[in-house]
């Protein structure tokens, strides 16, 4: 079965443009790009040459590491931070290393356990994660600029023709939402790539790592037979920090001639069980093993050696495994060190992988239960997917479920950055699935026949209209696990009452969007399963221009001021969008609304 061959249409813009995609991973990062020339079908290319990485031909990724000096200046980045002698120089100059810093952006609810996540390295002193990310993006940008100038004909002229108006695509784990996107956009602004205004912000788009991986897989290793009957395929992006699970199917009736469309058929998942957690489990075991040995002082070096060799080559839990870290003079029989090698059982090393493997298998099985269509294939991509042990175990454990587990033959670690460019160019996914129930809390008019209202009557209040209302009723805007077409809009009506027009405070009206993450199929009240409600953002609206007329009170003698309005949300795009609506002379009118995201607890 050959991979999909979807022709890419010529670029229809009037002038040349450049699209840069940054895949900032927990442990490794990459850059892909596409030069859009009018009338020419765009091509996706990767940056494959980096400083201090030249000896690796075709290297598509560099380590996600930055060294800062005591004044907070960048000293070494990427492969430069791993060159020979850098550890000694860093220690002598008192440099501070920033690594795994992407994890400091993560939603706080996505933690495996305090014991594991507490081992994520802290940020350098006096540095925020936005500042560190901005510094790293500047480095990736410079690498892309130099590569394009050096490898393209008339490269310098080409770069000068596009550098003032570059579109940026930033990938992120499936579990990240608006607040994380806001932080990443702030880093892009701080890096100096775009101005901090609406026009600048429009030049930055976001894509989940799962959706980027789908775009990559369609053109680079997903056989046509995987989706030819409309069956679903699970894309597993196994990276350094996260395991991103996404499930899609091909729409059997393309919308237009020659057009391929795909739909998400299960709510995407994100789990913090990437390859760094294999290293964390190894460190925990080695700390205990070497506790009474002089080699405990070499723990960092031993773990690095495990990462570079043992972890990558491991494929058999029946054979003893060795971490070569020293010379023939290094021996300690009590902890299995002979001739500079530390011996571990294959079963023990397999145990370091087990939490990640179990997570992947359980998540895939969960997708098969909740998906809107039958699933037949699983595709593993990402740097962690190159582990033969991981691949073989996932394949073996899912075989009884009738799932065909495959991985692309080429560049699985380029999936996200290349796929992010493809997302920008091709936009193949037209339908997505809600991960949770979205809604808002509001007052509802008291109903004496409703037991739920009666039990909460002690919380009621009387509005200026004379109506009795109950607070904290959850109005679901979008139910959980619902397929949403990209053009679908969700509208919710609201009302405001006041004794005067000034009492309505129309110039700064706010409404909160909440997410319910629990298992209740019909969440109705804030005081039931309250820990599973999380405020996502606040919609800010200016309603001062809306027409308002006094109305007669209910069973009263006075007047009150009443306004009915609605807000419209679009959830299907990668970023949430909002508008406000109202009716004037029988005609619906709209205007933009501002979304302000709440930081994680």
Task: Outline the structure in words.
- The chain is of the alpha+beta class and 601 residues long.
- It folds into 4 domains: 17-210, ATPase, nucleotide binding domain (Nucleotidyltransferase, domain 5, 2-Layer Sandwich); 215-271 and 365-430, ATPase, nucleotide binding domain (Nucleotidyltransferase, domain 5, 2-Layer Sandwich); 275-352; 437-597, no CATH class.
- 26% of the residues lie in helices and 30% in strands.
- The chain contains 13 helices and 30 strands.
- It has a 7-stranded mixed sheet, with helices on both faces. Strands 1, 2, 3, 4, 8 and 9 form a 6-stranded mixed sheet that branches. A 6-stranded antiparallel sheet has the order 20-21-19-24-25-30.
- Helix 11 (388-398) links the parallel strand 16 (375-381) and strand 17 (404-406).
- Helix 3 (129-151) packs across helix 4.
- The radius of gyration is 27 Å and the shape is globular.
- Residues 111-115 have low confidence and may be disordered.
